[in-house]
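Pilot study result, target chain (182 residues):
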Amino acid sequence: MFKLTILDGPQVDLGQMLAAKDARVVKERALLVAAPTNTLLHVTLRIPGPVKTGTRIEAVFSAVMQTLAQQLGEAVRSSDIDLLPTGPEAYFLTTLSPLSLKRLMVAFENQQRFCDLLDLDVVTLRDAELYQVSRTDLALPPRACLVCGGDAKACARSRRHGLPEVQQVVETIVKESASQTA
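Predicted structure:
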């Protein structure tokens, strides 16, 4: 049986995940209301199961966020990284247009294997409501499943792959990425 070694953070339950999601929406809205002409990049991880973090995950996430901040450069007005039990999160408030930022993030996804685990959400205000720019806004295909390469959302919805199988792929990606950032 496969034993996880990198997911060594605390277990979280559905209530904690829903509360974290609600808190993210509040934070996104507050950042964008304070700077309505800016575009927000909100970064989380795609890690299924009750454990969403660990020491190595946080280290690699922080290193990748540093790389991202360097690539965005002068376009970043402010940034914040939160290392939470529900998984690390980063917020970058930028001066880039929503579509330009989304294009950059699609390219960033392909720069290193760890980026396969990132959700790089580009958020803006549209008619005073939060609007998330999607890959379809750029006529791009959906994100690939970590296990089979198919449509990630379809695989997740149908639970096509068991939790241990997906966690093993996550473990491999983080180990490879940790050795590259060490």
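One observation from the pilot: The longest strand covers residues 76-84. A full batch analysis is planned for the follow-on phase.
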